[in-house]
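Hi X.,

You mentioned you wanted examples for the new student's onboarding notes, showing what a folding record looks like when two proteins sit in one file. Here is a clean example. The first protein comes first, with its sequence line followed by its structure tokens.
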Amino acid sequence: MNTEATGDREPGQAAAPSGEPQGSVSRRAVIGWAGAGVALGAVAAGSVAVAANTGGDPAPAPAQAADIPFYGEHQAGIATAVQDRLHFAAFDVVTTNRDALVKMLKEWTKAAAAMTGGREVGTGATGLAEAPPDDTGEALGLPSSRLTLTVGFGPGLFQKDGVDRFGLGARRPEALIDLPKFPHDNLDPNRSGGDICVQACADDPQVAVHAIRNLARIGMGVVNVRWSQLGFGKTSSTTPDAQTPRNLMGFKDGTHNISGTDADALGQHVWVAGGEGPEWMTGGSYLVARRIRMHIETWDRTPLKEQEDIFGRTKREGAPFGRQKERDTPDLKAMPADSHVRLAHPDSNDGLMILRRGFSFTDGTDGLGRLEAGLFFLAYQRDTRKAFVPLQQRLAGSDALNEYIQHVGSAHFACPPGIRKPGEWWGQALFG
């Protein structure tokens, strides 16, 4: 497994300290104890079969992927190798009490360090019978599943309805703009915006949901969930050596995405450099989240040749037109002028690049007999004004793919740098 490029631990090393009480218990330890005790009945029942199949030797326990370090120079979940599942939540801050908000962010950070390390929150899912547990409990017995939690702050945290609720207005980065309205946007305000976001990625959907649920529980009375999105089947990868994933249109997505191990590219396109804004954002990144509805029923009735012309790549191999393999250098002039790849390629945009980290979604039906399905697009960049905005303006104006998609949700967040050690907390430099 590839670890985060900026992580401080290689696979197999002990987990980073969590800042949790020493009495907290790792879920992995619980699993180990259960294997030696609680599960004895199942082992006994199957002992004859085990002996027949293995000569009496116990079957080896399945290997678990190493935890992704919570502490580091940058937040995990950005350049980290993309996991399989997503639960993204945007929160509205409902208090005007700055101290209450700071207290919540401190508690969130402790809880995030515990959960990403495979531990229960606080004193765990059991405790005093007379009090609610500190952990909601649905992840008991599950490993961390490479869980990462990434936090971001939206424009509304700095000023909302003309009011600077927390004295942060002067600390809003200039790059944290209110995104312009692009052609063909049909944004639902109930699926857009937010004062704070948390992106939970994991290889197990229950672990990701558990993380957001616990943070929402901790934040009750301080924040409310404004909207959330479940995602599956990563549609882009930060590990170019691995197989490129496909989106719901069946095409490979993110062939030339930024690699999570390419420090030069990350420094050039993703991480905010010193002096480019307020100091609290140095080492952070700007996140654009867009919910993109795909009209997949119409797409599924479109001839293959037209589908390939729209993307500028072959469907099976993912090769650019005029080439044989997916990663062959594309001949942009061989593609239709309005093809998606030609319009979005860095060579068509003065070298502009964003780090994509999207996921597919299906959310039931739209009431008209069609699947409510599409792409939850996540893009990280050094400055949204110089990356996503000009790129989306170009695509929204000319992309042939626009006939089959529509942007229906949108949000923009400033994601600060990582938490370097226990005792620090999300937003500390901003509120300090």
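Then the second protein repeats the pattern, sequence line and then tokens:
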Amino acid sequence: MTAPLTPPHQPSSHGPWQTPPRWGGPGGPAGSGGSHDGGLPVSQEEPDRRADLRRAAVVALAVTVVGIGLGLLWLWLAPRVPLVSDSTAVYLHDSEGEEAIGADGTFALLGLAFGAVSAALVFLLHRRGGIALVVGLALGGLLGSVLAWRLGVWLGPDQDVVAHARAVGKGVVFDAPLQLRAKGALLAWPLAAMAVHLGLTALFGPRDPEPQWGTPPGWGAEGPVPGAGAGPAVPPAPPAGPDAGH
């Protein structure tokens, strides 16, 4: 009797239904050069996240500083509200004027323009999307709007209306303090920036590459290769001689 070539308690390492021990593992075809167990590529999330946060911080700071330009433009373009005093009280010189509403509208329109331009510049510089970059752009737009608002009020006409009326005298028309009554105009810049940046990213941004997975031995791009996974042929047992039964 001839002994079996493969002990029954040890499966053959060349069986067609077994995965080679090195496939997908460290040093295997799919994971050589640095991979986690299971054949997945080494994660770059931590370095990428830090780079995204740095870019977002720089964008937020730069956009906030640009708010100075918005404040100066608002101070220059916003219509003035004329006031007049009769030595006892201060009145609107034109009670039917819409200058106060015009100041809010001017700020909102400038915020929309600054948001669109800042989003386009950020996209042209980075050519990528990402939640961190969008959040940095929106945060910078909000901070820039607040800076522009406070700067325009500070550089505008005197906030002390009574003292200003006394200084100019009775019956003299003077400008009211520059005010932003509709605080929702502060959101015009960040909302426009987010919308424009997301639109540009969707239209012209790079597409994410498809994940690369390791291919097991014996498999091609379209499926298993016939005969590639089969083990070596087992040689037939030698014929029994006349002394086989002894």
